[in-house]
Amino acid sequence: MRNAINWFEIPATDFDRAVKFYSAILATELYTTDMGGYKMAFLPSEDKGVGGAIVAGEGCAPSATGTMVYLNAGEDLTDILGRVEPNGGNVVMPKTLINEEIGYMAAFMDSEGGRVALHSQH
Q1: Residue 42, beta-bridge partner list
Q2: pTM (two decimals)
Q3: What is the pLDDT of residue 1?
Q4: Please, what are the domains in the chain?
Q5: One-character DSSP codes across 39-101
Q6: Among candidates 34, 106, 19, 94, which has minimal Cα distance to 10?
Q7: What parts of the chain have a pLDDT lower than 50?
């Protein structure tokens, strides 16, 4: 097993609003499609890297508790975190040093009420 995670999904109740939110904070356009009765917007990932998507459909319910996904925020999570509140999210943990070796984290509630975190080295 190379990685403990090979795919993740961030649930959305209002798909278009969630796609707009994540596109804005990540400063990228997300590819969207319908797949098996679900709307999906794919988050950026490198070839053979861990991938994920924003998903809306039956059983997709954002949560403020439960499993939390950490998105890779590149070298410094400050820019992405700064785009959360202007785009309808809420920062619930500011940029916080985990330790020098691991780097920094922050957490936010997305436009759908789901809790998500960011990670960066600086």
Answers
A1: 31, 53
A2: 0.94
A3: 61
A4: 7-120 (3.10.180.10)
A5: EEEEPP--TTS-EEEEEESTT----SSS--EEEE-TT-THHHHHTTGGGT-EEEEEEEEEETT
A6: 19
A7: none
